[in-house]
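Our consortium's second objective concerns turning raw sequence data into structural hypotheses that experimental partners can test. To show how far this objective has progressed, the report includes one record in full. It was chosen at random from the queue rather than selected for favorable results. The single chain below, 184 residues long, was entered without modification.
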Amino acid sequence: MNQLLLWLSLLCCAQVDGADGDPAPASEDEQAVLSVQRRRLEQDPDDRAAAWQVGYILYSQGDFEGARRIFEDSERRHGPMAYSSYMLAAIAEQEFRYWVARDLYESCLSLDSEYAPAREALLRLEGVLSDLARFRSARNRVTRELVLVLIAATFLLCLAGITMRRAREAEAGPRPPGPEPRCK
């Protein structure tokens, strides 16, 4: 029965993101499931199914801190499980803590090597981390090249200024003898 409730609540909450990428607004059904599961969790803090349902609903609503507390507490009470590790990894990924997420996905797969959502998420995340490393490398290379270009441009501007000053002096003819004029 608990498994059935878990799957039904997950189906109610399947749409995590709206069209604009923001968390989907909570439906009345979702709020009702959340309310019921929170009461179950208050009555029995060791009810893992209720905790996971509450955590997933909080995650789907964008309350990553609340969801993290629920899944971390579940792991403290029951030990690491593939689903709770996966959800903690998904939360870390949403918070742009990519290296933490990678470690958690790997932890999830060490608990259950057949857990397809974690395997797919880890492959996707490895691509993101690879792109991020290439971007950082390119940024450092571009920065060095920009500094060299700026040095060369400054040198050329100084050289052009000197050349223009000498051209103006040549047009004006020889200077009369006396002290050098000073700028005021």
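The partners drew two points from this record. The longest helix spans residues 116-172. The chain has a mean pLDDT of 79. Both points have been shared with the crystallography group to help prioritize constructs.
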